[in-house]
Amino acid sequence: MMLFWMALSALGGMSVTGPLGIAVAVWLLAGRTWRLSLSWCLLFGIGMLLVVATKVAWYGWGIGIPEWKFAGLSGHAMRACAVYPVVFYLMFLKARPTVRHAAMGAGTLLAVLVSVSRLPVQAHSLSEVVLGGAVGLAVAAAFVMVARSERPVIVGRVLVALCVPLVLVMPFTKQVPAEQWVRQVAMHLSGKEPAKRTWKLAPEHKQVHKAALAI
């Protein structure tokens, strides 16, 4: 069962969701929807900035909510909840409304499962996952609201061609050490050793692969 959760967790990694986010922007640019592409980049960038800011605040100055076991937004949850609903929505943009809504629902379900996977792999607390996922879903919802007024000219199959290889291949590539980068930035800015959690995420006897602990 742990392998299942770790496989799901890998789908939220920077090496997967980062290229997927770029694929969305490229697809929108290719469809000459410049405003929509810019909107996506801004919204996704804001979500990423919030993740980094909360983690830097914790590592650098210990700013968090110990009562909630909160030490920063889950990057996996934020990115998954931002990217997957949008990818599924765009892939079925030309389909009937019922099909398009079902596709977006499937993308949202996948995103939620990826977010939940961060709990059994002991990477985040419940509050970090819920708040990270909420930010990601807000990004996706805001983008869809903007997208309703646009008419991309490229059919969804193009986005499928861009995304499928990423989803199949990237989880098996070397993980991007994003968490380490954020920690180093926090240490540089604060001039202190990084703060450490004073709470446990799961029973000590469980062992989890270190790759699952990435941002």
TrEMBL record:
Listed A to Z, the keywords are: Membrane, Transmembrane, Transmembrane helix
A Pfam family found in this protein is PAP2
Q: Which domain of life is it from?
A: Bacteria
Q: Which residues form the Phosphatidic acid phosphatase type 2/haloperoxidase domain?
A: 69-145
Give the classification, highest ranks. Bacteria, Pseudomonadati, Pseudomonadota, Betaproteobacteria, Burkholderiales
Q: Which organism is it from?
A: Pseudoduganella lutea
> Under what name is this protein listed?
Phosphatase PAP2 family protein
Transmembrane annotation, as ranges: 6-29, 41-61, 73-92, 99-117, 129-147, 154-173
